[in-house]
Amino acid sequence: MKHCIYILIFFTALLNDDLIAQNRTFISPGIKLGYAFGSNGGLIAGLEVSYTKFPDNRGLITGVCLSIEQLHYSTLFIHVAFEAASIIGASIGPTLMISKQHNAFGVAGTVFGGLVILPYYRYTYLPNDLDFGEAGSFLKFPIQLSGSDFTE
User: Is 98 or 3 the better-scoring residue by pLDDT?
Assistant: First the structure.
């Protein structure tokens, strides 16, 4: 419960910043398809939504993302992260693994690039459990919520 409160405070602070600055804001829902490496690896698929700010001065794009992914039909991952990007981006944040055997809490970091199709590599570390890398691609659909048009 404490983690949920921190996440809500983070989202509120991020949204409040847009009331003052003239940033372009986007929400980008999408799908994820990848392959997790290692002995417990296999196809991993899921949904991700991100909320990002694109500053008017063409500075660093920042935001937060939430993804829900499934591996082997029995293992679910919920990942929340802070992200920053220009041409290439990175995100890092907590990850919760829920499986039939047990649950685990850890951290994951992702490197990605692109605009609508985003190839990525993610490393997930779950203490006293497992760690693995995965590679794949996101297909995201950015929807502008506020700010001036890019043609202006």
Answer: 98
